[in-house]
Design goal:
By secondary structure, the protein is an alpha/beta fold. It contains 5 helices and 5 strands.
Length: 153
């Protein structure tokens, strides 16, 4: 049996089929999902509700504001809330063009419901960062007795 999540997730995805899929996947995991189609509607929701939002999931490429632009405005109003950007574009391409800020998480489409659930759970389990930086921690290589780095498998 899969562990149930808890919390409220704002999902901003302009493709209604993908938005519906995310709503279903996250709902099955136990999350409350607030789905909207464009960034401007998300901002209206964020500004008009006092409801706690635990995570913002946004598509990178959308009409109007992009996901990274939305994340910037969202964090100005709700600092410290983690962001997960999703995209059908290759991570290397997005990073090389400076599209993805270093303080957000990225999940490349297509992904399975298990991958989405695990990613969301990992993000929500990270300690709060008051500076909005959600660093993707990479373990440092262990050193052997000679002081040389060992490869991790």
């Amino acid at each position: 049996m899969r562990a149930k999540g808890s919390g409220t997730i704002l999902v901003v995805e302009d493709d209604s089929a993908i938005r519906g899929m995310l709503l279903e996947m996250l709902g099955e995991c136990g999350y409350t999902v607030l789905p909207v189609g464009i960034a401007q509607d998300a901002m209206v929701l964020i500004e008009s509700t006092k409801q706690k939002i635990d995570l913002l999931i946004a598509d990178v490429v959308m009409p109007g504001w992009s996901g990274p632009e939305l994340a910037k405005h969202f964090r100005a109003i709700r600092p410290g809330i983690p962001v997960l950007l999703i995209s059908g574009h290759a991570a290397k391409t997005l990073s090389a063009h400076g599209v993805i800020p270093s303080d957000v998480n990225l999940l490349i489409k297509p992904f399975t419901s298990q991958t989405l659930a695990r990613t969301v759970r990992e993000i929500l389990c990270q300690p709060s960062d008051p500076d909005n930086a959600r660093s993707k921690s990479v373990p440092k290589p262990k050193k052997n007795k000679a002081g040389k780095s060992k490869k991790r498998g």
